[in-house]
């Protein structure tokens, strides 16, 4: 069990020009560069603010952007994995 991610739940989030900021229920705050999440990086301010904290705080979801971020992955420093999956799938059919 990893105490960094155990029972850590997102409470709120906001953005500055370069980062996604997540505040957790235990009082911690985390800044993650938008470059880790290309869909958020390319999104408008309005699109970024149209999110839902899902699963009681275990995830972040943007319907319009088709973006889902796991709180656990944020805490582990894992960014967008979509391009890795797309590349793997493309190789299967090549």
Characterise this structure:
By secondary structure, the chain is an alpha+beta fold. Helix content is 29%, strand content 30%. It is built from four helices and six strands; from the N terminus they run βββααβββαα. The strands form two sheets. Strands 1-2-3 form a three-stranded antiparallel sheet. The chain has a three-stranded antiparallel sheet with strand order 4-5-6. The C terminus is likely disordered.
Second rung of CATH, namely the architecture: 2-Layer Sandwich
Percent of residues in beta strands: 25-35%
| CATH topology grouping | NE0471 N-terminal domain-like
The whole-number mean of residue pLDDT values reads 86
Q: How large, in whole angstroms, is the Cα Rg?
A: 14 Å
List the domain count as a whole number.
Answer: 1
Helix-strand makeup class: alpha+beta
Largest sheet: 3 strands, antiparallel
Give helix and strand order, one letter per element, not per position. Answer: EEEHHEEEHH
Q: What would you give as the CATH superfamily?
A: Uncharacterised protein PF10387, DUF2442
Instruction: Sum up the overall morphology in one term.
Output: globular
Can you identify the CATH class?
Alpha Beta
């Amino acid at each position: 069990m990893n105490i960094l991610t155990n029972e850590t739940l997102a409470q709120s989030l906001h953005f500055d020009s370069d980062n996604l900021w997540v505040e957790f229920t235990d009082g911690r705050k985390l800044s993650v560069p938008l470059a880790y999440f290309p869909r958020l990086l390319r999104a408008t301010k309005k699109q970024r603010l149209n999110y839902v904290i899902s699963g009681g705080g275990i995830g972040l979801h943007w319907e319009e952007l088709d973006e889902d971020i796991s709180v656990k992955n944020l805490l582990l420093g894992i960014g967008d994995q979509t391009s890795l999956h797309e590349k793997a799938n493309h190789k299967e059919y090549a």
